[in-house]
């Protein structure tokens, strides 16, 4: 098993990095051109546009998921009736593939078939909701679909953290006249820092590799208005037959993921050592 992991994952990773410093096009070449492919990559307008879109998508997606997931977790933490059913409903979208999510939202946002057509058929002919074909708004439709799917995961992680908070703290806060919002802001949220950290890392990795929901909803369009790095890599690898440039782009994204994961792993290791010393 260990040999399989080393060969399949580490081996292909090293091979991809090796290709990224070669002049490979359609077929791999065993030469060395240094960082030329990386220079070409960051001189490519489409790549820079995709990075800009990724930053916008990431900030909105992570922020919205954390806020919505926290609110849903707080709601379920009130021991509401039908909690098990509600928890399943909120978490169910995450069980769907991003392709299915993208296709559903593509249909809902289609101006000729979805929300816009339905509202107009109800007697509001001037209603307009055509974001999915608007170059200035299409990226936000992808954010909406992605948040709808992933916020349930954040809810589950934060709810588990909330259930670990001592209930006596709330009773003491009520006796002291502390309002509920202040209780959550000053007492609960600091204790949820590890849960928020885990959620942030999971969402960030999802941002870096976002691909299928974009392809299912917009194919990166209209034009390049919803282009993302993963689709850039796919197109240059399979459609433009430039495996050298695609490998350079994938290496950049790998380093981005490692930059997110390594601090988290380091913090977890320090926390484990502290707990072991107690």
TrEMBL record:
CDD domains assigned to the protein according to its UniProt record, in alphabetical order: TM_PBP2
PROSITE patterns: ABC_TM1
Segments crossing the lipid bilayer: 54-76, 88-108, 137-162, 183-208, 243-267
Keywords: Cell membrane, Membrane, Transmembrane, Transmembrane helix, Transport
Domain ABC transmembrane type-1 intervals: 51-264
Entry-linked Pfam families: BPD_transp_1
Membrane topology according to the record: Multi-pass membrane protein
Superkingdom, taxonomy of origin: Bacteria
Compartment(s) of residence: Cell membrane
Family: Belongs to the binding-protein-dependent transport system permease family.
PANTHER family: ABC TRANSPORTER PERMEASE PROTEIN
Protein name: Sugar ABC transporter permease
Lineage, broadest ranks: Bacteria, Pseudomonadati, Pseudomonadota, Betaproteobacteria, Burkholderiales
